[in-house]
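Need residues for this backbone.
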């Protein structure tokens, strides 16, 4: 019976890190499911809200604008009492010559409106060009030795091109560092190379978990999430919150339409001008014989 080979310290540590990676990958899968379920639920609820409520709010806003147009203008307040200094100035107007000079000047013309700014030309800095050259020489897909590595490089080059075209040197550097720290860039098949790959995968999982936590917090602090929670709480008491909002809006729209009709009746449109009679054709004068 062959004696089992004793694992080296690197191999034992690799087993430990693989177990840690498996735990993180399972946790990451659950968190990915959580964030996408939350986002999908919000998208579905927002679509229902737009279909049932948003269009009615827009119709009510248009009616309110029409009511403001038809309503009589507000009564202007009485002018304030003039102080004695102004009264004395009115009783002693400037002489005619000064008024003539002032009249000749006229009111100052308003300054011309500034022309809209032209979009800036793409003129990347030399440091950005230098970094992009280094990125392209390192991760270009043509340098891949198999299809899997080529697809991996292609995804990174898409991100690098977007950062370069936006002139964002910090983003391009971030993409380059992500590439350098990725597990796919490690070569070799021994325990040491596999250990580095596993450690980098653990790091990627941990960073993605932090990103998911931030995404969930952003979704849960949005106004639409609060409305969704209110709708779910109302459903526990056999109430349809969106239907109730729709009913109230229908009542407000009906009242606004009635007010518009009354205002239009009290403000009839001006009569159309009478048609202009066509001018008589000129009399024909026979030519002299």
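Answer:
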């Amino acid at each position: 019976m062959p004696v089992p080979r004793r694992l080296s310290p690197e191999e034992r540590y690799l087993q430990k890190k693989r177990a840690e990676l498996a735990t993180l990958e399972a946790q990451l899968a659950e968190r990915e499911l959580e964030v996408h379920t939350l986002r999908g639920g919000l998208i579905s609820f927002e679509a229902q809200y737009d279909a049932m409520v948003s269009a009615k709010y827009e119709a009510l806003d248009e009616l309110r604008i029409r009511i403001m147009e038809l309503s009589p203008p507000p009564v202007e307040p009485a002018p304030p009492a003039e102080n004695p200094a102004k009264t004395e100035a009115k009783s002693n107007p400037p002489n005619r010559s000064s008024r003539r000079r002032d009249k000749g000047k006229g009111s100052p013309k308003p300054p011309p409106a500034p022309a809209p700014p032209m979009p800036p030309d793409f003129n990347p800095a030399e440091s950005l060009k230098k970094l992009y050259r280094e990125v392209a020489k390192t991760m270009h897909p043509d340098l891949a030795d198999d299809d899997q590595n080529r697809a991996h490089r292609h995804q990174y080059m898409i991100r690098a091109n977007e950062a370069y075209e936006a002139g964002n040197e910090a983003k391009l550097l971030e993409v380059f560092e992500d590439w350098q720290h990725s597990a796919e860039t490690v070569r070799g098949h021994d325990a040491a190379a596999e250990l580095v790959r596993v450690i980098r995968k653990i790091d990627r999982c941990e960073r993605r978990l932090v990103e998911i936590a931030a995404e969930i917090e952003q979704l849960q602090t949005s106004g639409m999430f609060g409305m969704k929670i209110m709708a779910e709480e109302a459903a526990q008491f056999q109430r349809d919150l969106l239907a109730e909002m729709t009913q109230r809006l229908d009542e407000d729209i009906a009242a606004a339409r009635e007010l518009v009709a009354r205002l239009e009746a009290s403000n009839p449109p001006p009569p159309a001008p009478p048609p202009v009679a066509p001018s008589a054709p000129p009399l024909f004068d026979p030519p002299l014989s």
